[in-house]
Specification:
This protein is an alpha/beta fold. Helices cover 42% and strands 15% of the residues.
Length: 254
């Protein structure tokens, strides 16, 4: 089954509102003719509203980098899924390794966030991945299994029909190291097999699994050639509109 690729840019804590808008104006014409894959940009919370207006009518969807699991309440500094839906967000990145390791997010917190995102008809991008220590200890698959099973506990295949999973080996994020296409494919194939066991084969076959971790124009072609890699969650290389457009085009600028 051929799944529609998704190339997603996660800007993390970069770009003011004006910088974000200047990027979008430069980026849109570079990808305007791309119609056979989905494109997403996830700016900072404060730029979401302005970016949504700038992206209107384009082929680029709006994503958020995180959210709280409650719709409102006494949670100083947090942003609710209801607020994200209100400004036109389509995708929400959840359980990113930086959230897990820097801010102590647990699998249960990620699960609650997925529930909240689904409640507001947005698409969750569930991030999973092992640290270097876990990989060297031979625990990669056990870590992926735990994060996937705990994060998706209690959901039906129907509820998760648009789910996106992103495999991000923590040791490859922002380090310049990339999992080889073979390493990435092995992890992706394992995740797909696990999804078929947790739900069913049809669900696993249609679920998009992205690779994240030092994705660049130079390595996107090799990654996308693998049967279970359905796109990329791009960090640093998404900050430059020309570079990200090359990744969206799988390394080519026709």
């Amino acid at each position: 089954m051929k799944r529609r690729p998704l190339i997603a840019g996660n800007w993390k804590m970069h770009k003011t509102v004006n910088e974000a808008l200047a990027y979008i104006e430069a980026f849109k014409p570079l990808v305007a003719d791309v119609s056979d894959r989905d494109i997403m940009l996830a700016p900072s919370f404060i730029a979401l509203d302005a970016c949504e207006k700038s992206l209107e009518g384009s082929n680029v969807a709006l994503g958020a980098q995180n959210c709280h699991w409650e719709d409102e309440g006494a949670f100083t500094g947090e942003v609710s899924p209801r607020m994200l839906a209100d400004v036109g967000v389509t995708y929400v990145i959840l359980g990113h390794s930086e959230r897990r390791h820097l801010f102590g997010e647990t699998d249960e917190m990620v699960r609650r966030k997925i529930e909240a995102v689904l409640r507001h008809q947005m698409i969750p991008i569930l991030c999973i991945g092992e640290t270097l220590e876990e990989r060297e200890a031979g625990k990669t698959l056990a870590v992926l299994e735990r994060q996937l099973k705990e994060g998706l506990k209690g959901f039906s295949a129907g509820e998760l029909k648009d789910l996106v999973v992103a495999y991000e080996p923590v040791w490859a994020i922002g380090t310049g190291k990339t999992a080889s296409p073979e390493q990435a494919q092995e992890a992706h194939a394992f995740v797909r097999k696990l999804l078929s066991e947790m739900f069913d084969e049809a669900f696993a076959e249609k679920t998009r699994i992205l690779y994240g971790g030092s994705v660049k124009p130079e390595n996107i072609v090799g990654l996308m050639a693998r049967p279970d890699i359905d796109g990329a969650l791009v960090g640093g290389a998404s900050l430059n509109p020309d570079t990200f457009a090359r990744i969206v085009r799988f390394g080519r600028m026709e």
